[in-house]
Write a structure and sequence with these properties.
By secondary structure, this protein is α+β, with helices and mostly antiparallel strands. It is built from 16 helices and 8 strands. Strands 1, 2, 3, 4, 5, 6, 7 and 8 form an 8-stranded mixed β-sheet that branches.
């Protein structure tokens, strides 16, 4: 997880649209090759030799001109200044490297020794390689990333269609009081698969920089629409232990535990059952369970989060809420007669909509 976050930061730093990327593209297009070190603290200064000190403002044209010389270029941390040019880098030769070319071997060793971001532009292969600590990342052509991202987006949309249908079926079953743990675990499994596809897509979008704006908007629209409903689903079915106090952190931990599952573990519904607080067994998947009511009540317009929490805490599950009369609802603190009527009408409308979808 730590390495993934670091890769995201690196890709954001050199994404298309940034000034540093413009400079890298200039060098790439010219076919001169280049070696850049981002950072000028003691660890870096100790391994540079020769060249000359500039301390001038950075711009893409300058970095392109300086790359025509054989030596490396050193920039400050935020790349606002070009500090040194045409320097020789002399990292510890005992540091292991998997690279073959001199420039790339030096880049990997410098990155491991100093912990700084090092960028190597290949003259022959016309590729940009990024190094930092033990991380090595080869920047890909934008057209390749867009193709990959578009395919992932189509897959995500298909998963969403299946998930929405599953949620509609679950709503039918909740009204009929027929829900088992199996249906809930299946929905959560599908959602987590969507999350993993979206995480891979986010990496593509970061790497695309300004070229990925439309994809980012599309991804937000797909995921935000479904996120809230899944959160309410977990609130509905998470089994709170007697000694456990239910908080927002409780549900965050559920998502964290789902994220920790391997692909193989995620496909085994027993593991999802266990995360929700039930037994890790296939037999438990046939357990009939009753939702608290968060998800259904969340579909009723004009009900606030506070109203929903009051209703859920007052009744013993969704079945009791559905069977309560307007008078019983209006007797609850902070639930007016008008709001009680909204609740009953909202439930009737939702049930009617679901019945239509059945046909």
């Amino acid at each position: 997880m730590y390495k993934n976050e670091e890769i995201k930061d690196i890709l954001s730093f050199v994404a298309p649209g940034t000034e540093i990327r413009k400079g890298l593209n200039n060098i790439l297009d010219a076919g001169t090759g280049g070696l850049l070190v981002i950072g000028d603290d003691k660890e870096v200064l100790e391994i540079i030799d020769g060249g000359f000190y500039l301390d001038c403002d950075y711009n893409p044209q300058r970095i392109y001109e300086l790359a025509k010389m054989d030596g490396a270029i050193v920039l400050n941390k935020d790349t606002s200044k070009i500090l040194y040019a045409n320097v020789q880098l002399q990292p510890n030769p005992k540091i292991e490297t998997t690279e073959s070319g001199t420039r790339h071997r030096t880049a990997e060793r410098v990155a491991k020794q100093t912990g700084k971001l090092v960028i190597s532009i290949s003259q022959k292969r016309k590729r940009i390689s990024i190094y930092k600590n033990d991380i090595k990342y080869l920047l890909r052509d934008i057209s390749v990333i867009i193709t990959e991202a578009s395919q992932a987006m189509k897959t995500l949309e298909r998963y969403k269609e299946v998930l929405v249908k599953s949620l509609t079926n679950l709503t039918m079953m909740e009204f009929d009081d027929l829900v088992t743990l199996y249906e809930v675990c299946m929905i959560i499994q599908k959602f987590e698969l969507m999350v993993r596809i979206s995480n891979a897509l986010k990496l593509n979008i970061i790497e695309l920089g300004t070229e990925g704006t439309l994809l980012a908007l599309q991804l937000d629209e797909i995921m935000n629409e479904i996120n809230t409903e899944i959160q309410d689903l977990i609130r509905d079915y998470y089994k709170v232990e007697e000694e456990e106090t239910e908080t927002e952190d409780t549900f965050d931990k559920v998502f964290d535990k789902l994220e920790e599952l391997t692909e193989e573990e995620l496909l085994d519904l027993k593991n999802i059952s266990y995360i929700l607080g039930y037994k890790r067994s296939y037999a438990s998947l046939d357990t009939k369970i009753v939702p608290k009511g968060f998800r259904i009540l969340g579909k009723i317009i004009r009900l606030t989060t506070k109203d929903i929490k009051i209703l859920v805490s007052h009744f013993d599950g969704l079945n009791d809420i559905l069977s309560a009369s307007e008078e019983e609802l209006s007797e609850i603190d902070n639930i007016s007669k008008f709001k009680a009527k909204i609740i009953k009408n909202g439930i009737r409308r939702l049930r009617f909509t679901i019945e239509l979808e059945k046909k």
